[in-house]
Backbone:
């Protein structure tokens, strides 16, 4: 009788031991699974945080337009005289620029807010003045239709240094005689889709020329053919 009792106790102890071992195993499995899920959650970046270094950049609805440019040395692609004053086209740029106080919105007649992003074609001139002092207007125009309609630039004055005194308009329009002024810019705000531009120097010269974006993205300046040069 005692032996049967002892045997049953051994079986009960073994069963309890097996149950404890199974329970511990289940607890260990649940603990490990919880840690794995926790690690996965931690690795998820919270909303608003910086993207991972290898994450693709977010798409922009208004990508910045890279500035294309071309600068020229002698012989310049376009040279002309207006009275006693000489003009050379030394460069051209096309792309996004920051608005400056001297760039006007032709729709309102007022300057753009400083820092406004504009897509513009900029003609860069070297101006050599003659013996007598003369005030210079910006005569350059863009041809905007087949009927010959002209658009004036968004810069209405040159930027001559203050060498003559007087009011601001005198300083901007009336340079010193027998002087050379580099980096004089004429800005035209243009549609970003346009790839071909026609201009006239206006004034007494009235020379037509083209600025074209070529297939490789380079800017090309070409004088319009005339009856004299075919």
Residues:
């Amino acid at each position: 009788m005692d032996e049967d009792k002892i045997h049953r106790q051994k079986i009960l102890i073994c069963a309890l031991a097996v149950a404890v071992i199974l329970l511990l195993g289940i607890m260990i499995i649940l603990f490990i699974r919880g840690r794995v899920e926790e690690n996965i959650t931690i690795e998820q970046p919270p909303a608003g945080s910086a993207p991972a270094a290898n994450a693709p950049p977010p798409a922009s609805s208004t990508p910045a337009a890279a500035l294309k440019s071309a600068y020229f040395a002698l012989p310049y692609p376009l040279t002309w005289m207006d009275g006693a004053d000489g003009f050379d086209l030394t460069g051209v740029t096309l792309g996004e620029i920051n608005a400056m106080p001297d760039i006007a919105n032709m729709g309102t007649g007022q300057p753009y807010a400083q820092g406004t992003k504009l897509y513009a074609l900029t003609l860069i001139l070297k101006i050599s003045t003659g013996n007598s002092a003369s005030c210079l207007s910006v005569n350059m125009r863009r041809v905007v239709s087949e009927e010959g309609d002209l658009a004036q630039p968004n810069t209405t004055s040159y930027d001559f240094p203050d060498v003559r005194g007087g009011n601001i308009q005198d300083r901007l329009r009336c340079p010193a005689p027998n002087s050379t002024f580099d980096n004089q810019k004429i800005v035209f705000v243009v549609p970003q889709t346009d790839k071909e531009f026609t201009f006239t120097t206006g004034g007494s010269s009235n020379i037509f020329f083209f600025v074209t974006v070529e297939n490789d993205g380079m800017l090309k300046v070409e004088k319009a053919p005339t009856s004299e040069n075919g």
In short: Helices lie at 2-43, 168-173. The chain has two domains: 1-35, 68-223.
